[in-house]
Amino acid sequence: MESAIDHHTARALLEWQFELGVTDAIGDDPVNRYDLPGAAPWQQEKHVDRPDAADMPVARRTEDPVAVAEAAAKRAGTLEALRAALAAFEHCELKKGARNLVFCDGVAGARVMIIGEAPGRDEDREGRPFVGRAGQLLDRMLAAVNLSRETSVYITNVLPWRPPQNRDPRPDEIAMMRPFLQRHVELAEPDVIIAMGNISCDAILGRRGITRLRGNWAQGFGRPVLPMCHPAYLLRQPLAKREAWADLLSLQARLKGST
Ligand code: URA
Prior knowledge:
Layout: H1 7-19, H2 58-62, H3 65-75, H4 79-87, H5 94-97, E1 105-106, E2 112-116, H6 121-126, H7 133-144, E3 153-157, H8 171-188, E4 192-196, H9 198-205, H10 210-213, E5 218-220, E6 223-228, H11 231-236, H12 241-255
Parallel strand pairs: 2-3, 2-4, 4-6
Antiparallel strand pairs: 1-3, 5-6
Helix pairs in contact: 3-8, 8-9
The structure holds uracil.
Uracil binds at residues 116-120, 123, 129-130, 132, 134-135, 157, 196, 232.
């Protein structure tokens, strides 16, 4: 019988399981799912336009995840309550594959809030944003303008769970996590936001095209937003560090009140 998923997808799913630490199939006897009554999950009708909808209980399939996220985020009156609301949010399938919820790092209430894309492997392990190679570069960049996560910067991501194999977040994932991000900004009350990379610009400004956006102050979530190239991009394209330096100086000037 022809499989509903292609070879590459099946292989990617298997590799993801390996990466999560799966070593054995559980159950003594193999289950022939084609013999089970009812259609296989991927043959069932989807109630909403989400690729993962077939795996969900019917009640949750019919709910609008964005509306649920908006209501949950609105109810959170503190950063800790927002973290708890995220931990209780069951509509994002990324949660199932993640080891940890990655909520924040740095100083809550700092003037500068950095918003990255999503946790990678190191962040997923530690439960803190920007702790891998890109994060180490970010720390050096901040130090160059006398900022640090220990004293003067607050850090989070658009998505709090690691996407499998670090794939780009999907539009539906960004849309359902955006209400939490907006509330995060409201509660953290930064003077300025740094939008690190395209996904962050998409979530905050509704725009992509970081090479054109970077360095140009914009307005998002009611605050000044400076789009910058993501440190992971700078690791791959060291020549772009020159522009990143100019952006850091622009940030420094804004904090000193001279722009
Ligand atoms: N890249 C991000 O955007 N965020 C992290 O936390 C780590 C890498």
